[in-house]
C-alpha cells in the first residue's frame, strides 16, 4: 500500500494498521479512503484473498453527519459509531468513557472468579 498519504501521527503519515487478518485503513477524507480500499482489494486479490464486506465497517472520527459511504465491489460498507479493534473500543467522538467502563467490568468479572 502507498505510504505517501494517510493521517499525520507525530509527523509520520500512517495509512494502515495491520495485525494478522485485521487491517485498519486510515485517511483524512472519504475519497482517499475509497482509493486506499480499492488498492487493498487489488492487492488482496493478487494474493488470492477477498475482503469480507459483511465484517468491514467504517468509523468516521468527529463528524457524525458524513453523507458518503465507502463501497467495495458494489457493496456499501456500514458506517458505525463505535468499533472494537484488537480489544479496544474506538468511538466516533474519541471518548474513552465507555472503554473505561468496559475494562472495569472485565476486571470485576475476573476478580469474581478468583474467590
Report on the architecture of this protein.
The protein is 30% helix and 28% strand. It has 115 residues and is α+β, with helices and mostly antiparallel strands. The chain folds into two domains: 1-80, no CATH class; 82-115. The strands form five sheets. The protein has a two-stranded antiparallel sheet with strand order 1-2. The protein has a two-stranded antiparallel ribbon with strand order 3-4. The N and C termini lie far apart (50 Å). The model has no long low-confidence stretch (mean pLDDT 83).
Summarize the model shown.
This is Reverse transcriptase domain-containing protein. The protein has helices at 30-46, 97-113; strands spanning 7-9, 12-14, 16-19, 22-25, 57-59, 71-72, 75-76, 78-80, 82-85, 88-91.
List keywords for this structure.
two-stranded antiparallel ribbon; globular; alpha+beta; 10 strands; Reverse transcriptase domain-containing protein; 115 residues; RT_dom; two-stranded antiparallel sheet
Amino acid at each position: 500500500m502507498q505510504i505517501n498519504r494517510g493521517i499525520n501521527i507525530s509527523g509520520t503519515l500512517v495509512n494502515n494498521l495491520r495485525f494478522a487478518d485485521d487491517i485498519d485503513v486510515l485517511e483524512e477524507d472519504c475519497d482517499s479512503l475509497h482509493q486506499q480500499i480499492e488498492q487493498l482489494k487489488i492487492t488482496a486479490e493478487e494474493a488470492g484473498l477477498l475482503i469480507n464486506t459483511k465484517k468491514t465497517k467504517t468509523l468516521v472520527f468527529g463528524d457524525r453527519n458524513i453523507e458518503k459511504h465507502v463501497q467495495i465491489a458494489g457493496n456499501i460498507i456500514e458506517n458505525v459509531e463505535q468499533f472494537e479493534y484488537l480489544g479496544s473500543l474506538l468511538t466516533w467522538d474519541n471518548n474513552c468513557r465507555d472503554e473505561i467502563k468496559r475494562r472495569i467490568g472485565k476486571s470485576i468479572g475476573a476478580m469474581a472468579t478468583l474467590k
